[in-house]
Design a protein that fits this description.
Layout lengths: L17 E4 L2 E4 L5 E3 L4 H9 L4 E3 L14 H19 L4 E11 L2 E3 L5 H11 L3 E12 L2 E13 L4 H9 L20 E5 L2 H5 L3 H11 L1
Parallel strand pairs: 3-4, 3-5
Antiparallel strand pairs: 1-2, 5-6, 5-7, 7-8, 8-9
Helix pairs in contact: 3-4
């Protein structure tokens, strides 16, 4: 007997989110955005959710200001990225984002070497920590800034595991010295919140911000 249920090969495709209007479907396509980032992870997220975009890599000073807490830090950098991109691509829908990791009262930025990455991983081992991503949206002259928080639990890591992971090179350009979507996934025991936020771009938050601006 043929299985007539829809699957990935025979399911009907729509351009994007469709809304019912009586018996008719009305498409509601996502607007194209300019992503003020060179991050391959953020680009991967947008491709995954079928969001049209172009990237605009920027050089922004990411030095944290004295006494600056994590929410202020990620939102300030996200805004700086978006505003810089808006100067180069006026009249576009601009998105800037920045992500950091917090454990206790300590912010873990990108490691500055192998020893620093090992230090961060020893701190994360066996513990919960928070991942914060600031998102800035510029639509014409309007600016919106917000942030998302996700909690992540690391498994206990042996020193051999830490050494191996650092030597793969994956931790070296990541806040908190790990990538949840990469080799680091094997060390993640739990997550509370938006998975994509840990990768670097909270899709639901961005979607809500875009809807509010339209």
């Amino acid at each position: 007997m043929d299985d007539k249920r829809n699957n990935q090969t025979n399911a009907p495709e729509l351009d994007d989110l469709a809304r019912h209007s009586g018996d008719r479907l009305r498409s509601s396509p996502l607007p194209k955005i300019i992503l003020a980032s060179a991050s391959p992870r953020r680009a991967e997220i947008l491709r995954t959710v079928n969001w049209p975009f172009e990237t605009l890599p920027l050089n922004i000073d990411e030095t944290r200001e004295p006494g600056e807490d994590a929410p202020t830090y990620v939102q300030r950098l996200a805004r700086a990225k978006a505003e810089t991109a808006a100067l180069r691509s006026p009249s576009s829908l601009i998105v800037g984002a920045d992500t950091t990791v917090v454990i206790g009262d300590q912010i873990l930025e990108k490691p500055d070497g192998h020893d620093d990455a090992r230090r961060m991983l020893r701190q994360l081992s066996g513990n919960w920590h928070k991942v914060l991503t600031g998102v800035a949206l510029i639509d014409a002259s309007e600016l919106r800034v917000a942030y998302e928080t996700t909690e992540v639990k690391f498994a206990v890591m042996s020193q051999d595991e830490i050494d191996w992971y650092v030597l793969t090179g994956e931790p070296m350009d990541k806040a908190g010295a790990y990538a949840i979507q990469g080799l680091g996934a094997r060390f993640i025991e739990g997550i509370r919140g938006d998975y994509f936020n840990v990768m670097g771009l909270p899709v639901r938050l961005l979607y809500e911000m875009v809807r509010e601006s339209s």
